[in-house]
Amino acid sequence: MKLETMYQEIILDHYRNPHGHGLRDPFDAEVHHVNPTCGDEVTLRVHLDGSGPDAKVVDVSYDAMGCSISQAATSVLNDLVVGRTVGESFDVLAEYQKMVQGRGKVEPDEDVLDDAVAFAGVAAYPARVKCALLGWFAFKDAVAQADDNAPELEEHQ
Amino acid sequence: MTALAPVTGATLDVEKIRADFPILSRTVRDGKPLIYLDSGATSQRPRQVLDAERTFLETSNAAVHRGAHALSEEATDAYESARSRIAAFIGADPGIETSEIVFTKNATEALNLVAYSMSNATFSDDPAAQRFRVGPGDEVVVTEMEHHANLVPWQEFCRRTGATLRWFSVTSDGRLDLDSAEARSVINERTKVVAFTHQSNVLGTVNPVGTLVERAKAVGAYTVLDACQSVPHAPVDVRALDVDFAAFSGHKMLGPSGIGVLYGRRALLEALPPFLTGGSMIELVRMEGSTYAAPPARFEAGVPMTSQAVGLGAAVDYLSEIGMENVHAHENVLTAAALEGLQAIDGVTIIGPRTTEARGGAVSFEIDGVHPHDASQVLDDSGIAVRVGHHCAWPLHRAFGVQSSIRASFHVYNTLDEVAALLDGVRRVQDFFARDGVVL
């Protein structure tokens, strides 16, 4: 069933127990993103060490209000990017974006996506793609604000 | 058109009505019958409306009020006939030369038309327009339950004119607070415009138009009624309501999208400066300047939507044949069943009045521990279409301390079985998100 495909147990687990939740210091940039169609909101901070694609993501902290998909996606984001470089993080984001916007026609690369592959079912529901991307786009925006030398996401697609 | 006489009292032959709506027989999500409970967002259209548009386009399509060829004359007649029937439907002047009905792209544009035309009075050298002048020190009154379409245009109007925006707040049971000491002073001698919704698109609340009009008239303020959620569902007589302006949209009343209606008292429309300018709305054009046509043409610049007007005329005929009293009575039965059924489910909270008294058929609610977006996904999986989000009434949701809500809304084609399906769907939502015993 499609519905269970989207609401995988791993997504509901992240929703119930979000990883890295809460706003923390220190941080280099803070952004506030909303989904105007449903009112979901996320405030997200990034703390980087270094500059450019090799900068390390030291912390991603956030405060979010939203549905299970947007909340879980931000939790998985925290899992997947903290400790990695900005370049590696954007590789994951590019692959993730391709999957959730792919209308189910994109074969996800599990090696790159790790737990984020659980969101493959979202692609069947175009109305929910924005939910899945809210926290990730906030992250991309925060990195761009934190570092003038941040890479363009497109370079990693 | 098929006969649609009610069987007894509030009981309509809903199956016969449903047969007029082709879309209602389709299935969604792997073969589930569609249960369409989102008419508050947009209603479905009967064959009679679709046929009227198609017939017009296949026989008489031409640009209206232009040219003297046969098609142009037929198209103009069809367009003006629709205007006249729509006027009669809401109790406005049905006369062609004296019309009080302006066609717009949608209700949002109709409300913007009033706000922009009024602020254009500031720049008008027409003495008649001066009655609409608003400036610093003046006030505009709205309510906390407005749809963004009747709020944001007035925020912008105040920004342009320097006037101050004030509003009535909403009580915890979903009514306008009209009686507190604070509320008593909201409309005062500085008030120039009172803009408010007839029926809340979220709460279902029907506002006391008479009280608000009386207070507005006492201080000489103009009244602007958002009738988007009332005209499609109940008898509305703009003259009896005594409002100055009213706006509603075609697509919420079984008609086409791409057409909205502005009602304005004839004397006010005659004094009001134009909003959009260009072809069709002029009287005389010289390089140095222009004069403008009488209403409604003054407010219909450019080639207007035509098949949509014809379609809306057919929608009004269709609703009139059923009888708006019967439409209202039928929806009242559905609303009562939904309110009662939802309140009987643990963990469900209604946002808005809990009985059908002074209330229409928009039923918004929350399910404890489940985000509305997730709830609607499970309902959708059962074939049930509801609206989720803030329904373009963000300040109202904030007033209730909620981020978003689930809204079921009805029209004449909905059934008690569909209300029962909604209630089953809500229980399925609760089961789904508590499926391993963990309540979110």
TrEMBL record, chain A:
One Pfam family here: NifU_N
Limits of the NIF system FeS cluster assembly NifU N-terminal domain: 6-131
Gene3D superfamilies: 3.90.1010.10
Entries under InterPro entries matching the protein: NIF_FeS_clus_asmbl_NifU_N
Gene source species: Actinomycetospora endophytica
Protein name: SUF system NifU family Fe-S cluster assembly protein
PANTHER family listed in its UniProt record: IRON-SULFUR CLUSTER ASSEMBLY ENZYME NIFU HOMOLOG (PTHR10093)
From TrEMBL, chain B:
Coiled coil: none
Top EC group: transferase
InterPro entries, sorted: Aminotrans_V_dom, Aminotrans_V_PyrdxlP_BS, Cys_dSase_SufS, PyrdxlP-dep_Trfase, PyrdxlP-dep_Trfase_major, PyrdxlP-dep_Trfase_small
E.C. number(s) listed in UniProt: 2.8.1.7
Transferase among keywords: yes
Cofactor requirement: pyridoxal 5'-phosphate
Reactions it catalyzes: (sulfur carrier)-H + L-cysteine = (sulfur carrier)-SH + L-alanine
Purpose of the protein: Catalyzes the removal of elemental sulfur and selenium atoms from L-cysteine, L-cystine, L-selenocysteine, and L-selenocystine to produce L-alanine.
NCBIfam families listed in its UniProt record: sufS
Family: Belongs to the class-V pyridoxal-phosphate-dependent aminotransferase family. Csd subfamily.
Protein name: Cysteine desulfurase
Organism of origin: Actinomycetospora endophytica
